[in-house]
């Protein structure tokens, strides 16, 4: 499958989400650089309209469900103390030790505690426990537009650099992330 095909399919799935006001493909694509949050901030600055929530959908997610998009937008809108939201799903055993499949741990209220490329939580047996509800982070996130202006000013953090995961910079700086 070609990358352009994936991007087109991702776009077609995103159009089905009911919570998104502005969506562009083709002439409206905004090319950016840096991390997801920095790219979203850059894109937001280039748009004429002002938005409260910005959603970043990876172009290689052609099967993304519109309900997932709507879910992360609503999670951010209904969580007054969250500045970022993301989606998680059940981790499959075959992805447990794959460092390209990011794992997540949530607290009892659905806020992210930690993200890792390693299996978390990691039990002392060192094996995948089929009875434990491990979570896999999906490649989609939504940001509070005001937070996007702050994010680029935050210095890289030790956990972010060690795991190479920008979500950790958000958590290490004391911000809340809803999943």
Automatic annotation (TrEMBL):
Short name of one Pfam family: CTP_transf_3
Keyword field: Nucleotidyltransferase, Transferase
The keyword Secreted is assigned to this record: no
Source organism (scientific name): Hevea brasiliensis
UniProt-recorded name of the protein: 3-deoxy-manno-octulosonate cytidylyltransferase
Family annotation (InterPro entries): Cytidylyl_trans, Nucleotide-diphossugar_trans
Lineage: superkingdom: Eukaryota
